[in-house]
Amino acid sequence: FFFSSLLHAAPSTWLETFSERVKSTRAFLKGFPKLTHLANETLDEDSLLVIAEAAELNIISIHTEHNYLQQQYLGNNIWYMVRKVDKFLSLGWSSPASEKVIPAGSNFTWIERGVKKVADIPILYIGDSAFVKPPICSAGYGECGSPNAKRYIESKQSFFSALSADVKSRIYYRDYPEPKRSLLPVHHLDDIFRDEYHGQFGTVDTDGRINMTSLLARCSILIVDYLSTPYLQGLLGNIPMIVLFNQDSYYLDDNYLDFFDDVIAAGIFHTDPVSAADFLSRVVDDPNLWWKGSSVQAARLSFLERNFGKPEELDRRIIAYSNEKLG
Question: Cα(42)–Cα(61) distance, rounded to whole angstroms?
Fold first, then answer.
């Protein structure tokens, strides 16, 4: 155990190769003598070293938020990212806890624009995998760790058990892609679920070769069972959607206990998988009849207005910073 832990406790990048990495980083920055601002979306090891060395040269570091909302979760790592940079450009939300957080937007391709929708997938189900442990300790990973893995699989089993064979046969089940699935140890309950249910669906996609945005453009209704990027794509793309929200896994910070209340009340988020299955069975033949309702659209738009800015706002700020016109 001791020797295997050294990879994480004392990686070679901190010891044997650290001096060389610092040297090459300084040489890289030296090649841009007029550099005043540094914009970045990732905080991997190399990026953090560049940010640290840039700070020594009084270069301002700007972090642009990834395509994922996490400020509402207990144990989120926004605090960690904010303390590493000078400015944090969020997807569009503001924070009373830090002046560094600046509402902006995102240039991520959430949905395909200008593509004529051909709804040849009656029900698109986007699922995650249950993992042995989370990559970081955050309630935003509601399928990771044995207790959460068990709750996650049980929720899916309850949902699909409550659906008729006819409805299940109309499902295009997009599983978590195998290349990504192999990056973390998968919980054994996930394989049990696959063996039990994959044969009941009309189509099962495990390799992820078809782009997510392409699939979204082809579905009549979307079902999402984890809270990462897909449900945001559904809301932004105005796609009829049901989200299975497991409140026993996704713990909310005290300041955000009402974060999902509007979308729960509108029937977009469901806290009971059995009632979610019943709801799907009732709306599946014409999901737009429900989705286009004024209360559903009001809840969707309210959620987006609180959390998302326009891409042009992000562009405006980045350009303004590069021209040193924004403080």
Answer: 12
pLDDT 10s digits, 37-60: 999 998 899 999 999 999 999 999
Comparing CA positions, the residue from 274, 253, 249 lying closest to residue 147 is 249
Rg (CA), the chain: 22
Q: Tokens 């905080």 map to which residue? A: 43
Three-state DSSP class for 91?
A: coil
Q: Kind and range of the H or E element at 22?
A: helix 18-30
Helix (H, G, I), strand (E, B) or coil at 31: coil
**Residues facing 125 on adjacent strands:** 173, 223
pLDDT digits (tens, 9 = 90+) for 91-147: 999 998 899 999 999 999 999 876 667 889 999 999 999 999 998 889 999 999 999
DSSP assignment of 164-175 equals -HHHHHTEEEEP
Handedness of CA 162, 203, 287, 250 (dihedral sign): positive
Among 307, 314, 315, residue whose Cα is nearest residue 68? 307
| CB burial string 192-203: b at 16+ within 10 A, e below | ebbeebeeebee
Distance CA 13, CA 134 (A): 23
In whole angstroms, give the CA distance from residue 69 to residue 242: 18
Type of residue found at 102: I
- Residue where the block lists tokens 């309950």: 189
The residue count of the chain comes to: 327
Report the side by side order of strands in the sheet with 60-64: 37-40, 60-64, 87-90, 101-103
Q: Is the dihedral of CA 115, 117, 122, 124 positive or negative?
A: positive
Please identify which residue in the block is written with the tokens 């309850």.
Answer: 158
Amino acid identity for residue 49 in this structure: L
Instruction: Check: pTM over 0.90? Answer yes or no.
Output: yes
Helix (H, G, I), strand (E, B) or coil at 286: coil
